[in-house]
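Input:
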Amino acid sequence: MEIILKAVAEVKNSRHDTSDDFWGDIISEITLMPEIPSMAFEGIMNFSHLEIIYYFNKVDPQKIVYSGHPRGNPKWPVMGIFCQRKKDRPNQLGLCTVELVEQKERSIFVKYLDATAGTPILDIKPVFKEFDLNGKRKQPGWVATLMKDYWK
Amino acid sequence: MEIILKAVAEVKNSRHDTSDDFWGDIISEITLMPEIPSMAFEGIMNFSHLEIIYYFNKVDPQKIVYSGHPRGNPKWPVMGIFCQRKKDRPNQLGLCTVELVEQKERSIFVKYLDATAGTPILDIKPVFKEFDLNGKRKQPGWVATLMKDYWK
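Output:
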């Protein structure tokens, strides 16, 4: 079964390259598509953080993999694609928790979105503390090294 | 532009109704679709928690809204759809952080997935602590009341 989606909003920011690191200083504007009414953002400043689901539209479908070394680094173990967050993945979906800075009419401004200019946004959800992990989680050692410069 | 996705996996569990609460006791089996190779799960037990993006396939497209009272309750303020997590939303995408219990070949078993039997899974991502909020977030008062019985 095919599932057909349409962008609900689009990203404007200063980031055009899809390289891996240095997302910390970028402020992104997320603007509703013309067919989405403004009321979809009503009350959004009640929340400080949002989850953004987006589409990695610059991925070459030929590069989608099911397994491999994270970032192609042979020092790290081979991991399945569902144990990595890389963009070259089935369905090309990205997901990021962002800090909401400001709303201006049909746009919101957010920090810590790791998406480039022109990225189609598929959904925006408020962060509820009732879904928090409260620090409980386990991860392998390579993740901290891989993420070292991500938010710089 | 239309974005065409396909399920990468499917949910099996004992939950068939789409009512709002009481998800805490449900264990879900997530099984890869036949066209996805098993290596997509290689190494997954290195992680304790996963983010699951799924498709609310039981939503009636006529019921999709852009704004309204959360759960239709007039005691709570009218909020835009991007300030709510309800299923009747543009693109019908669900998102949940789950606890990984076990892997058996082409299936993983998870707790705290709020999706019914037969739900198509669109992506699975490992939780990295580098994306954590560490408790920082603001939300309006109605959320705690709305979520009171959610994980019971």
